[in-house]
Amino acid sequence: MLEDIILERKKKLEYLKEEKIEAYPVESKRTVVIVDVVNQFSLFSKSKKKFFVTGRIRNLRDQGKIIFADVEDFSGRIQVILKKDELKNFTGLKKTLDMGDFIEVSGKTFLTNTKQKSVAAISVKILVKSLRSLPSDFYGLENIETRLRKRYLDSLLNKEVRDMFVKKSVFWKSVREFMEGNNFMEVETPVLESIPGGAEAEPFKTHHNALDEDFYLRISLEIALKKMMVGGFEKIYEIGRIFRNEGIDAEHLQDYTQCEFYWAYSDYQPLMKFVEKLYKFIIKKTLGTLSLNWQGKKINWGGKWQIVDYCKVFKKENGFDPIEATRDQLLQHAHKLGVKIDPHLGKGRLIDLIYKKTVRIKLIQPTLLINPPALVEPLAKRSSNNSEVVERFQVVACGTELGKGFSEANDPLDQRARFEEQMKLRAGGDKEAQMLDEDFLEALEYGMPPTAGFGFSERLFAILMDKPIRETVFFPPMKRKI
Q1: What is the pTM of this model?
Q2: pLDDT tens column, 399-448
Q3: Closest CA to 282 of 266, 301, 269, 306
Q4: Residue 281: strand, helix, or coil
Q5: 92 and 199 share a domain?
Q6: DSSP code of 467?
């Protein structure tokens, strides 16, 4: 059936060539978008000025001497009426036009008997001859896998999907607006790194032919940005792609956008207040409200966020202090909870897995979770009140982490010792443990000012949309069809 449709449309394409009609012309004379014609309809009706609209034919009804076509561009849709008496090329159009074709139309606006805003065409030009038939508006694309593989069709057929991606553009634009308004400078750092750092994740590996060296795709923006803080910058941020070679689920992608920023002469206390303002600004700009639904629950982003101590809430939910617990105790408890455990994991990772299973899933309203054990976070500064915990906070809501910030570790000797602990775990088989980065340690030895840093990803946008994250990106990675 599909082959027959393509063959029939190719015949129409041959007809256009025989008639010396360009099926894919370079020039388009569009002077106005469709939504402006619709919204200023009375002005266009009174004006004698010629205008051109362009768009894709979304519906086509041939009534003999009259053809009705619904034409759509990104801004909206309008009915165009083609009459044999008005168009010299009517016969050719009748023979060749199909749903999915792009056309350029000039004409006069008028209301039909049913009060439908329409354009009576006085000239019609084919801009693109489509060779495949579009799925109908009514049936659309039902299968989610098909929708994600053919996102261009999903976007074309579903206004809700297009609107979501418009919101996503506003989301990142609002981040830049807030950061620039607070005197942060946007920067770019390399995607390829000799040593991946800044997070616990398995990296993607590639080879640089010109240098004949293996490189990793960055798993975080952190290390390069901290080096810039050593270099004299004081308020910087980056919005960029990061890559993590880990599992796919509702909250994780392997290739996604992250924002990180660093603020000299600050710490995690003022940073928490700043981040709360940032999130409220982003959400209000993106969605126009701070009260949202997530899986049937009302989430109030506009109120004062609660502050929860990591170790205290961990003990409350699990019955023991995470710092005082032995590795064996953590292993046994994790098994009781049904948590899948890699036998090579260190104590910090075990604490984190138990926390995610017992604590995080219960934090639904916006929460600032503070002061986790130092074993959990190797890049944060130890607390001056208790060296067993670090000055870190996470934004947690809807049962998941939506951002993380801390007073950055800037003691090069302490940082080296913590990297060495990570390397022991790595030698024991933990592929996600951090690598020792001599270049970064050397930079710290020159001195990095007291610094607060924070990072969040497009997972926040997915939660705001109440959708799995892969449904909020244009082309998520998917296994090839065989």
Answers
A1: 0.91
A2: 999 999 999 999 999 989 988 888 888 888 877 778 888 999 999 999 99
A3: 301
A4: helix
A5: no
A6: S
